[in-house]
Design brief:
Elements (H helix, E strand, L loop, with lengths): L5 E7 L6 H9 L6 E7 L6 H11 L3 E5 L5 H10 L5 E4 L5 E2 L3 H12 L3 E4 L1 E5 L6 H16 L17 E4 H6 L10 H11 L3 E2 L5 E6 L5 H4 L5 H15 L7 E4 L3 H12 L5 E4 L8 E2 L2 E5 L10 E4 L4 H13 L8 E3 L2
Parallel strand pairs: 1-2, 1-4, 2-3, 6-9, 7-10, 11-12, 11-15, 12-14, 15-16
Antiparallel strand pairs: 4-8, 5-10, 6-8, 13-14
Helix pairs in contact: 7-9, 9-10
C-alpha cells in the first residue's frame, strides 16, 4: 500500500519552553511521509527562532507567519499551504506517541472515507494536575474507546483537538477552518458530527496533552463558558431539536438560566423544570418553573439537562429512561 502524505497543522504562540519536545516527537514518528505546516501567531519570545532552526535541518517542516491574528487564522494559513491526502492537527505545547501517525492512518485506511481517526489522550503537567482535567481525560477516553463520542457532544468537546485525523476530502466537506467560530475545536467537532463523519474506536494513548497556566483554553476570552453554551444551543437547534415536539429545560442554576435566556432570545418556547421547592411556582425571566414530574405528563418531549452534579445526573438519566426516553434523542446533557 502506498504511503500517502499526512499534513500536520500546528499554530504556535510563545511556547518556546515546549516546542523542542513537540517537534522532536514529530521527528520521531515511525511513519515518515509527513509535512509539518507550523504557523507563528505573533510570538514575542524565541519560539520562531526555535522552529526556524528545526526547519533548516528538515525540509518537511514548513514555517509560516500568521498575517492575521488568532488560532483560526493560523490554522487556515497552515491548511492553505498543505498538500497531504490526510489532515491532522497538533498543539505546540504537547507531544506525540511515536506510533501516532502510523496508527491513525491505518485506521482511516481500514475504515475508509467518512470516518475520523482518534486516539486516547493523557494529560500531564509539571505542577499538580487538576481533578477536572483528569475527569475530562477519563470521560473523553471512555467515549473514544467505543467510538461513541457524539453521544455526549453537548456536554463538552468530544473530539480531542490535537488528536484526530481525517481524509482531506472529508475535511473539505466539513468546511475545514472556514468558519470564524470560537471555540474552534468544539465547533469543528460539531461539524464532524453534522456532516456524518463516524468516529473510529481507539484503545491506544497517542497524544500527551500538557496543562499549564498560560494555555489558551485557560486564558483567552474565546474559551469562556458563555461561548460554549452559545455554540451548544445553536447546534442543538440546528441538528437535534424537533420543533414539532415540546421542549423542556431541566435545571435552574447558572447554566440553566443562561440557556433559558438564549432560548427566549431565539423565541424558542420551552417548559422549565426543576426540583428546588424554593423555585417551583416562581417565574424567572417571565418563565414559570414547574416540578420535573411535569415531564411525565408531556408527550414526546425533548429535554435539555443543565444539571452538573453527577448524582443528580444519574437520577435524571434513570427518570428519563423510566419514561422510555432515549439519550441523545430525547434528552441531552449540556454539562
Amino acid at each position: 500500500m502506498d504511503d500517502p502524505l499526512i499534513s500536520i497543522l500546528v499554530p504556535f504562540k510563545n511556547t518556546e519552553r515546549f516546542l523542542a519536545q513537540c517537534l522532536d516527537s514529530i521527528l520521531a514518528q515511525s511513519y515518515a511521509n509527513w509535512e509539518l505546516l507550523i504557523v507563528d501567531d505573533h510570538s514575542t519570545d524565541m519560539s520562531y527562532n526555535i522552529v526556524a532552526n528545526y526547519a533548516e535541518k528538515d525540509k518537511r517542516i514548513k514555517l509560516f507567519k500568521n498575517e492575521n491574528s488568532g488560532i483560526i487564522a493560523a490554522l487556515r494559513t497552515a491548511y492553505q499551504n498543505s498538500h497531504g491526502q490526510f489532515i491532522t492537527r497538533m498543539d505546540s505545547d504537547d507531544y506525540m506517541h511515536p506510533e501516532k501517525l502510523k496508527l491513525m492512518l491505518k485506521d482511516l485506511q481500514n475504515y475508509g472515507r467518512q470516518h475520523i481517526a482518534l486516539g486516547l489522550v493523557s494529560y500531564f503537567s509539571e505542577t499538580r494536575l487538576g481533578n477536572g482535567y483528569k475527569a475530562y481525560e477519563d470521560w473523553l477516553n471512555q467515549l473514544s474507546i467505543g467510538g461513541n463520542n457524539y453521544s455526549q457532544i453537548y456536554k463538552e468537546c468530544v473530539i480531542p483537538s490535537p488528536c484526530w485525523m481525517v481524509h482531506r476530502d472529508d475535511f473539505e466537506i466539513c468546511r475545514a477552518f472556514q468558519p470564524n467560530t470560537y471555540p474552534e475545536d468544539y465547533d469543528l467537532a460539531f461539524r464532524f458530527y453534522k456532516y456524518g463523519l463516524k468516529c473510529i474506536p481507539s484503545e491506544n494513548v497517542l497524544h500527551y496533552w500538557r496543562d499549564h497556566t498560560n494555555r489558551a483554553s485557560r486564558t483567552h476570552e474565546h474559551y469562556a463558558e458563555n461561548n460554549f453554551i452559545d455554540l451548544k444551543i445553536n447546534y442543538f437547534l440546528e441538528l437535534d431539536h424537533d420543533a414539532n415536539r415540546p421542549l423542556t429545560l431541566w435545571g435552574a442554576g447558572h447554566k440553566g438560566k443562561t440557556i433559558a435566556k438564549l432560548l427566549k432570545s431565539k423565541n424558542i418556547p420551552f417548559t422549565w423544570l426543576c426540583d428546588n421547592p424554593k423555585k417551583i411556582g416562581k417565574h424567572i425571566y417571565d418563565v414559570l418553573l414547574v416540578h420535573y414530574h411535569t415531564l411525565h405528563q408531556m408527550k414526546q418531549a425533548q429535554t435539555i439537562v443543565a444539571v452538573a452534579n453527577p448524582e443528580d445526573q444519574q437520577h435524571i438519566t434513570t427518570y428519563c429512561q423510566d419514561l422510555g426516553m432515549t439519550a441523545a434523542l430525547d434528552y441531552f446533557f449540556f454539562c
